[in-house]
Write a structure and sequence with these properties.
- Strand 3, helix 4 and strand 4 (112-118) form a beta-alpha-beta unit.
- Helix 1 (21-35) crosses helix 6 (166-186).
- Strands 1, 2, 3, 4, 5 and 6 form a six-stranded parallel β-sheet that branches.
- This protein has helices at residues 21-35, 45-48, 67-77, 95-102, 125-137, 166-186; strands spanning 7-12, 39-44, 81-87, 112-118, 141-142, 147-149.
- The two termini are 18 Å apart.
- By secondary structure, the chain is an alpha/beta fold.
Length: 187
């Protein structure tokens, strides 16, 4: 891995007990590291434990009062690109991810974002579509390619890891190639 490579943050959106997001994130991290185009970091929103947006001033101003916001700002600021690993809840994405996005403003701008969506028959597709509307408002650049995982729980081994799936691997590489291409253009 080349340290001059852009930083890709893989953001685990789900925080609920029994979640499968970390398993898909771990699988994706391995694919991304094998890809070699990025310095890969994992950001787990369950570990961040951000409260509901509690900053008194608009995020555009970057006049943060709380240390948790300053820490979150520094984390997002150092990234060049993102992959949001998101569940689909009731035809949309979860509140924890929306809250994490809304805490900041300028830190997201001019960065590429890809999506790994998972769920039931919808495979996270509707959550991704809603997220694309939100991220473009923050001047992020969502890429077309995505990894969509239908019936996500059935894709796991008894050990809780993502089972070998050449189609998922191929989709991840295609997304990473495009994410790298767009990230280079934005840099």
């Amino acid at each position: 891995m080349n340290e001059s490579n852009p930083v890709l943050q893989i953001v685990i959106a789900s925080t609920r007990p029994g979640r499968v997001g970390p398993a898909f994130a771990e699988w994706f991290v391995k694919v991304a590291e094998g890809h070699g185009g990025f310095v890969v970091e994992t950001v787990d929103l369950a570990e961040r434990n951000l409260p509901f947006l509690d900053e008194p001033k608009h995020p555009k101003l970057r006049e943060y009062q709380h240390q948790h916001t300053k820490d979150w700002s520094a984390t997002v600021d150092r990234a060049d690109a993102f992959v949001f690993v998101t569940p689909e809840y009731n035809y949309g994405y979860n509140a924890v991810l929306k809250n994490a996005i809304d805490f900041l403003h300028q830190e997201w701008a001019d960065k590429a974002v890809g999506f790994l969506g998972y769920g039931g028959v919808g495979a996270g597709t509707r959550a991704i579509q809603q997220l694309k509307q939100v991220v473009t408002t923050l001047r992020m650049v969502p890429i077309f390619e995505a990894v969509n995982v239908p019936f996500a729980a059935g894709k796991l081994t008894p050990d809780g890891e993502v089972a070998a799936d050449p189609q998922l691997d191929a989709a991840a590489v295609v997304m990473l190639d495009e994410l790298l291409r767009v990230t280079k253009l934005l840099r």
